[in-house]
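Record type: monomer structure entry
Structure origin: computed from sequence
Chain ID: A
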Amino acid sequence: MFRRDPLHFLLLLLELLVVAVALGVFAHWRTHGLRTALWATGGERGWNSNPRLRIYYYANHQEPPEIPFLWTESLAESLLGIAIVNAAVWATRVALACSGVSLPLVGAFYDLLLSGLWTFGVNAQTASDLTDPRHLSPRPWYLERSCAGLYGQDGATCRQGKTSFAVAVICMVLYFVRSVGSVLRLAYWCGEYRVLDKCAEWIGECWTGPKQEKAGGSRFYKDRPLMERGRISMDGSSYLGSESD
């Protein structure tokens, strides 16, 4: 399979590299709670809402504002889940390629699915934090500011935030390009095997078949001679009487 299609083999290698990096990056994000660290770093500098001020709401028995989705662990879990789905799709592609099976429709579905998931991942990482009117943040601070002025753990967290966003963008672009190629390949496959024509013929046969059978039954009765029509009835009796009559 790979000898006949080296381009497919190179695409699988490229996809393996991207999937491995995505799994490593987003698993690290999930296990180390870097979303909360980025939120706290921006809050201390007035770049977004400050999570440490939420304690005053609890002290005054007030309901604190909802945590922006950008800083929640749900986003980190979602990104890790997308990376896991991506890895499962890659393993399925390899299994199909090794078995010599080519399914253009399935390949197009996988590429469109992953393109949509990574588009969600990119948009979620660029979400806003508008919970504090005094420190509005239309976009995450680590995407709009340089990490050069941050040192120690804050600088490392900032660079990791930029890295996670870059990985999501690369995955989105990769699977968008693959989606275009898969759709074009599917269209070529449908044209080569006349899939749409065969489907239209099949639908036409299913639609006109019962009508023809019904019409054929009525013509069968009308074309009978008058005496034979009299012998045909649902219960076996004659409509026009017996021959003795």
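Annotation 1: Residues 199-231 form one domain.
Annotation 2: DSSP finds nine helices and no strands in the chain.
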